[in-house]
Design goal:
Length: 481
């Protein structure tokens, strides 16, 4: 039996827009340190010395929109996922945990699951390991364990857990889950000493969770079982059956099970909480990131090429160009190649309102960055106008784009670095640095990198329609239609 890390990677992080976007959410970003939040989560149990060995490969539940970059980031940590389960539609955390529990139960008999959101920060890993070891003992005894953060302040952005009497060393009963309070109520919670921030971290035997969800929500369990029965393996991924999963009720772990356990003593499952102080944050908005970041003597935090003059207590994130700040106080400035966002630090929760407005207007900046990641590499749309678009394309060594054709555009390819293998109609030939070729409209073509270094190209598209949906794929290494 093993301790199985389960990483829930389904959030969109709208309050961290414009860095976090639907197709590239905050867990895929390196916001604190050099590793992304997903990578930090995948390595969070490194060095853990508990009573169960940790499974070397995590189970990840995520959205199919960012499946390839998720797999790539995990491989870069040296911990490729044991299974990456692709949800065809979001159904909250309880179905995600049910899918993971069924996977472990079917393939390993049983095991203890440590459920971790992919978009949280833990700055004190050793303290986290101690808390996990305490929770593991309770979970092995059949309890449903959550982890509560000892509050550092009266926070209105988090839900709370009211803890009860001690039920084991370092473990307390869960008396109640409480919604996000107003400021006065939050202050009362903190002063009482009985309330903890709800971290969204859980630990439970796979079999215990399945018994509980089967008791409280048999329709959810049945839908998850059917969706796994209808799952299809796709390279590194498990595509969950869409029809069955769409019929699955949507609910959180808290609401679906944890809050109901106290009223169901016949199950014999105790809801427990482990209080911990581990430098935790869910990095829910830009003000939280400012709190976590290293600052200069004036209270400023910067990432990228930033110049401060007479500026205090501000956060500036520059992605593609220099940002100069003069005479600012308490602001957040985030620059990307296609968006600049400026906000007061005490209004960063309202960024989600901007995202809602942009989504209603169908603005592309909500969904994706200018630079788009693909399994073969990435491309950056550096310029566009009427009937033309210019892209900077990078293809990883050994990778290949699909064999494809376009109805409405022609393409000019110029190799900047590396070697390109080009298929154009019935021809196949190599291009090296400073060489170019032309792909006429309607001609079948493919681009490959046969070399050992990154292939960089400039692609100039011209035609009556330049949308990404003007691609007819005939063959594709990555199983895309």
């Amino acid at each position: 039996m093993h301790l199985h890390p389960v990483i829930l990677s389904g959030g969109s992080g709208t309050r961290l827009w414009p860095l976090s976007r639907e197709q590239y959410p905050k867990q895929l970003l390196a916001l604190i340190g050099d590793d992304t939040m997903l990578q930090q989560t995948a390595t969070r149990l490194d060095g853990f010395a508990g009573s169960l060995p940790v499974a070397a490969e995590p189970i990840v539940v995520c959205n199919e929109e960012y499946r390839f970059i998720t797999a790539e980031q995990l491989r870069a940590t040296g911990r490729p996922a044991y299974r990456i389960l692709l949800e065809p539609i979001g159904r909250n955390t309880a179905p995600a945990l049910t899918l993971a529990a069924l996977t472990v139960a079917r393939e390993n008999g049983d095991g203890v699951l440590l459920v971790m959101p992919a978009d949280h920060v833990v700055r004190e890993p050793e303290a986290f390991h101690r808390a996990v070891a305490i929770g593991l003992e309770a979970a092995q005894g059949g309890a449903m364990v959550t982890f509560g953060i000892v509050p550092e302040r009266a926070e209105t952005g988090y839900g709370y857990i009211r803890s009860g009497s001690e039920c084991g060393p370092g473990v307390r009963e869960v008396a109640a889950f409480v919604e996000k309070p107003d400021a006065d109520t939050a202050a009362e919670y903190v002063a009482s000493g009985a309330y903890l921030w709800n971290s969204g971290l859980f630990m439970v035997h796979a079999s215990v969770w399945l018994d509980a969800i089967g008791h409280f929500n048999p329709a959810m369990l049945s839908a998850c079982e059917a969706s796994l029965d209808g799952a299809v393996r796709d390279i590194d991924f498990i595509r969950i059956g869409r029809d069955a999963f769409e019929a699955c009720p949507s609910d959180s772990i808290d609401y679906a099970v944890m809050e109901k356990l106290a009223g169901a003593p016949e199950l014999g499952i105790a809801p427990c909480v482990v209080p911990m102080s581990v430098g935790w944050s869910d990095v829910g908005a830009w003000d939280a990131l400012w709190s976590l970041a290293e600052k200069d003597c004036a209270g400023n935090a910067a990432r990228g090429d930033v110049v401060f003059e007479g500026t205090t207590d501000s956060l500036v994130h520059a992605t593609s160009r220099m940002v100069a700040c003069v005479g600012l106080d308490g602001l957040v400035v985030v620059e990307t190649p296609d968006v600049v966002m400026v906000a007061h630090r005490d209004r960063t929760q309202d960024v989600k309102k901007v995202v809602s407005r942009l989504k209603a207007d169908k603005r592309s900046q909500v969904y994706a960055h200018r630079k788009i990641h693909r399994p073969w590499g990435c491309y950056d749309s550096v310029d566009d106008g009427q009937r033309f678009q210019v892209k900077h394309i990078e293809v990883k060594p050994g990778a290949a784009l699909s064999l494809q054709m376009h109805h409405h555009r022609a393409e000019h390819w110029i190799v900047v670095r590396g070697t390109a293998k080009v298929t154009r109609g019935d021809e196949t030939f190599l291009l090296t640095e400073n060489q170019s070729t032309y792909i006429p409209l309607g001609v079948t073509h493919r681009l490959e990198n046969p070399g050992k270094m990154m292939l960089e190209m400039i692609e100039v598209q011209s035609g009556s329609y330049l949308g990404e949906d003007d691609i007819v794929r005939f063959e594709d290494t990555y199983g895309r239609k």
